[in-house]
Specification:
The chain is an alpha/beta fold and 388 residues long. The chain has helices spanning 21-31, 49-61, 73-87, 101-113, 128-135, 180-193, 250-260, 269-278, 282-303, 329-340, 366-377, and strands at residues 36-37, 96-99, 119-124, 141-146, 163-167, 196-200, 226-231, 244-247, 320-321, 342-343, 345-346, 358-361. The structure holds pyridoxal-5'-phosphate.
Length: 388
């Protein structure tokens, strides 16, 4: 007799770990009537009036047939123009593939350029989904660089192994911005070593205190060694519409378009029409989102008094900070969630040096942040006294 335990799962799936905040969230929801979720990178901000208006108009005029695989041509041209103005790139519609968010853009890019034997170099700590995507490839080495020192001086690999170097500036989860000089050196390094820089620019427009990030594309205008992973999720506050893009050299984009036949085929019509209408106003919309995120961050910095629990600091950009916590991060988050309903993301899910940190999101609801500050200020972690 055979004892079947379910379908046999591909061995690569054993390398994938569920983001730990999901368990913490379930735990909080099962025990507390009020849950303050500061663990996810969503934008709980009323959409900008221009976005709401565009959604209304787009829903009236949209045909619901398949759009082109690469995205509406008009939108590809508009994205190319936006990249020329915001990053100084020298690109056209043929350099753009519209995708279902940065998530699909990243996976499709890896599927298009990554070969067995290649190496992917991620920041440490890193956004967990980058690790998940990298782990879907067999015979690819994953290395890390520290965010505490110059990126360009840490990424050299072996001569016969091609490297894909991921930058994410401002960073999820640390909120750090790579200084322009370091980015320029990294582009020089990629050029000399035939490496590829994959630049996740999900948060490029969300920065604080004048810490303006720079795209590697600003030093590689025709994107010969650079793949830009773009997203309208955060800078327009439209996470649910699933709109992003890949920008790179035209051959890469045309190959990525073929890969795209096997993923989502095309991006949704409604979302594309919304971005077509709102992209000309992106500066205004992004400033609205940025100001709301900064307001929540300031509320937190002003009200928070428990440096003994969380070593908080001002991030340079993104939606997050990633403070040190003198406990095992999962246990700390679990007890905090059980006792208070406040959900933070345990750092153990964010790469080799994520442990002993937690990620706090300032895209969370203002009310939740206000209540969470009070609850954390009064939190006494009983079961954690001997954990340090
Ligand atoms: C660094 C980073 N890249 C990509 C994504 C995914 O973005 P999208 O909604 O465009 O798929 C996120 C979402 O939180 C992110 O933080």
């Amino acid at each position: 007799m055979s004892w079947k335990t379910g379908l046999k799962i591909a061995s690569r799936i054993s390398r994938i770990v569920e983001p730990p905040h999901r368990r913490i969230l379930k735990e909080a929801a099962s025990r507390r009537s009020a849950v303050m979720n500061l663990s996810v990178g969503d934008i709980f901000i009323e959409p900008h009036p221009l976005v709401k208006d565009a959604v209304r108009k787009a829903s009236e005029e949209s045909s619901l047939t398949y759009p082109p695989v690469e995205g509406f041509n008009e939108l590809r041209s508009l994205i190319a123009e936006y990249l020329m103005e915001s990053r100084g790139l020298d690109v056209k519609a043929e350099n753009i593939l519209v995708t279902a968010g940065a998530s699909e853009a990243f996976l499709v890019s890896l599927m298009t350029v990554l070969d067995p034997g290649d190496r992917i170099v991620l920041p440490d700590p890193t956004y967990p989904q980058h690790t998940i995507a990298a782990n879907l490839f067999d015979d690819v080495t994953i290395d890390y660089y520290s965010q505490d020192s110059e990126v360009s001086s840490q990424v050299a690999g072996e001569k016969d192994r091609r490297s894909l170097i991921l930058v994410c500036s401002p960073n999820n989860p640390t909120g750090k911005v790579i200084p322009p000089r370091d980015m320029e050196k990294l582009v020089e390094h990629a050029r000399e070593n035939d490496s590829i820089i994959v630049s996740d620019e999900t948060y490029l427009e969300i920065f604080f205190n004048g810490n303006k990030p720079v795209s590697p594309g600003s030093f590689d205008a025709s994107l010969e060694n650079t793949i830009i992973i773009g997203s309208f999720s955060k800078n327009m506050g439209i996470t649910g519409l699933r709109l992003g893009f890949v920008a790179s050299d035209k051959n890469m984009i045309s190959r990525a378009g073929m890969v795209r036949y096997a993923t989502s085929l095309t991006s949704n019509t409604l979302g594309q029409r919304v971005v077509l209408k709102t992209l000309p106003f992106i500066d205004e919309i992004t400033e609205y989102v940025r100001m709301n995120v900064e307001k929540r961050l300031r509320m937190f910095m002003q009200g928070f008094r428990r440096m003994d629990l969380l070593n908080v600091y001002e991030p340079q950009g993104s939606l997050y900070m990633f403070p040190y916590v003198p406990f095992k991060s999962f246990k700390f988050c679990l007890e905090l969630a059980r006792e208070t309903g406040v959900v933070l993301a345990p750092g153990e899910g964010f790469g080799p040096h994520g442990e002993n940190h937690v990620r706090i999101s300032f895209g969370a609801k203002e009310e939740d942040i206000k209540n969470a500050i009070e609850l954390i200020n009064n939190f006494k972690p009983k079961s954690l006294e001997n954990e340090q």
